[in-house]
Automatic annotation (TrEMBL):
Domain Ig-like intervals: 1-48, 53-92
Name by which UniProt lists this protein: Ig-like domain-containing protein
Taxonomic superkingdom: Eukaryota
Statement: the UniProt record of this protein carries the keyword Signal: no
Alphabetical list of InterPro entries matching this protein: Ig-like_dom, Ig-like_dom_sf, Ig-like_fold, Ig_I-set, Neural/epithelial_adhesion
Coiled-coil residues: none
First and last residue of the signal peptide: none
Length: 92
């Protein structure tokens, strides 16, 4: 699929491809094709989409009595899926 004419894809005079407003659906393999009277050559690049992690903590302050059990819930979203680690005191 040639990308010419798209409102988000533009080719510069030197042949570079500019993708504006990157979306997850833009990830994939892109190919560059060059040709003249002597022949044709191609190269490919893999474009990977990533998102910064967003941490979701349900409760930020919990009171618990001596000998009781609690669960500290934490989840995070991001691409690729972030690793979650817990710290006591200052976060590294």
């Amino acid at each position: 699929m040639f990308l010419m004419g798209s409102s988000r894809h533009r080719m510069t005079p030197d042949g570079s491809l500019i993708i504006r407003n990157m979306e997850q659906k833009d990830a994939g393999v892109y190919g560059c094709l060059a040709s003249n009277l002597a022949g044709t050559d191609t190269q490919t690049s893999v474009l990977t989409y990533i998102e910064s992690p967003v941490v979701i903590v349900v409760l930020s302050e919990i009171l618990i009595g001596l000998g009781e059990t609690t669960i500290l819930a934490c989840s995070a979203s991001g691409i690729p899926q972030p690793e979650i680690r817990w710290f006591k005191g200052k976060v590294c």
